[in-house]
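Design request, tokens follow.
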């Protein structure tokens, strides 16, 4: 059998298409990465703008707890229907300069660092604004990366949300025990009453367990928690009438 030799023009048409240059590939990679970074930067801003009017449906911590097998008890409650005793007690214990700072209390940070350099354990200096930013957008682990992201997030929500909305969101999403989120769910779970009916003592107890709500209980308080509750009540009295940024009365 005679061997068929393809014509030159046929050989040309059968050549493989030229490979795309590496330069073009890297351009597409860089473009995709830039778009992804812009999306990551824009998403929190867009969500914060949405949260000015709409309640956050979930937080990263809630999702983590769901995967760990816990349920979610929460009920969004406007700040006007949360006891002023609780608002003042939480601010008094967690961030007494809430209305004065711009998101990060640098005086408190400086004091904490100075105390640590003189031998004291390093204490937290997180403000309510910082905790709200963490609750809304970040994960709960304590590490440098999260802290580095938390700072610009804090200034962003201060600019987008404002003080009143920040404290309103914080009191509605903060963890108050296993599967319990927000003032209304906590008030109902622990005291069988709505958040607007909390007594000063009950408000002080709820505020007192916030650093470790999975460790401490407001209905079986240790001596330490009772002392914190008394401190919360005393600070709430001092703050009465001086929290204009929250708009609370009474």
């Amino acid at each position: 059998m005679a061997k068929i030799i393809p014509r030159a023009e046929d050989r040309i048409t059968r050549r493989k298409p030229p490979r795309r240059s590496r330069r073009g590939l890297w351009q597409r990679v860089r473009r995709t990465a830039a778009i992804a970074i812009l999306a990551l930067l824009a998403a929190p801003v867009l969500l914060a703008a949405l949260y000015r009017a709409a309640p956050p449906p979930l937080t990263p911590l809630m999702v983590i707890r769901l995967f760990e097998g816990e349920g979610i008890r929460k009920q969004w409650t406007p700040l006007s229907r949360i006891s002023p005793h609780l608002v003042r007690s939480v601010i008094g214990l967690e961030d007494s300069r809430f209305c004065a700072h711009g998101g990060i209390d640098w005086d408190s940070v400086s004091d904490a660092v100075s105390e640590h350099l003189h031998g004291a354990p390093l204490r937290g200096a997180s403000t309510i604004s910082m905790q709200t930013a963490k609750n809304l957008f970040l994960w709960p682990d304590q590490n440098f990366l999260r802290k580095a992201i938390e700072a610009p997030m804090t200034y962003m929500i201060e600019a987008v949300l404002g003080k009143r909305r920040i404290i309103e969101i914080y009191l509605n999403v903060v963890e108050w025990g296993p599967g319990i989120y927000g003032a209304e769910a906590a008030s109902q779970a622990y005291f069988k009453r709505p958040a607007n009916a909390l007594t000063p003592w009950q408000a002080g107890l709820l505020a007192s367990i916030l650093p470790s709500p999975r460790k401490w209980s407001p209905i079986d308080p240790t001596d330490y928690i009772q002392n914190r509750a008394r401190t919360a009540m005393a600070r709430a009295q001092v703050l009465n009438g001086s929290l204009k940024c929250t708009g609370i009365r009474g």
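Comment from the thread starter after seeing the answer: thanks! The mean pLDDT is 86.
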